[in-house]
Amino acid sequence: EKEKTAAEIEAIKENPPASSVATEYFNKKESQRKLEIEAMVNQPAAPAVEHFTRKAVEEKSKRNLMMDVEYVPPVATQHFEDVEKKKEAEIEAKREEVREKMKRGTSQRKPVDWESFTKQKAPTVPTY
C-alpha cells in the first residue's frame, strides 16, 4: 500500500495536473505587478523626494559631527552623580567596618545559649 502511494506521488511530481484558470490569471497579474514595480524603481525620483533625501543626509551628517564632540553632562547631573558616589562610598565603609568587627569577634549581639535550646522539655498538658 505504501509503495502504491509513493508511486502515485512520484507520478504527480513528474507530471503535475494542469493549473486552474484562476491560478493562471493571478500568476499573470503578479508578473504584471512585478514589471510595474521594476519600471517605477528605474524611473528617476521626483524633485521633492530628492530634496528631502538630501536634507535628511545633511541632518544625519550634522548629528554625526555633534556625536564626535565629547559629551559633558549638566552641572546638576554631575552633582547628583557625586552625591550618589559619596553615598556608595559611605555604605562600603560601613560594610568594611562591620566586616572588621566580625573578624575581631567584637559583635554587639549576645551569643545564643544553644544548651538551653537543646535541653528544653515539652510543655506538660493537664490531664482531666
Q: Would you give an account of this structure?
A:
With 128 residues, the chain is an all-alpha fold. The chain has helices at residues 2-14, 21-42, 47-68, 75-104, 114-118. The longest helix has 30 residues, at 75-104. The protein is flat, with a radius of gyration of 42 Å.
Question: Which key phrases capture this entry?
Answer:
128 residues, mainly alpha
Write the layout of secondary structure elements.
Elements: H1 2-14, H2 21-42, H3 47-68, H4 75-104, H5 114-118
Total beta-strand segments: 0
Order of helices and strands: HHHHH
Q: Roughly what percent helix?
A: over 70%
Uncertain segments: none
- What global shape is seen? flat
- Terminal CA distance reads 85 Å
Beta-strand content: under 5%
Biggest pleated-sheet summary: none
User: Which value, in Å, is the CA radius of gyration?
Assistant: 42 Å
List the total number of helices: 5
> Taking all residues together, what is the mean pLDDT?
85
Structural class: mainly alpha
Quick overview:
It is built from five helices and no strands.
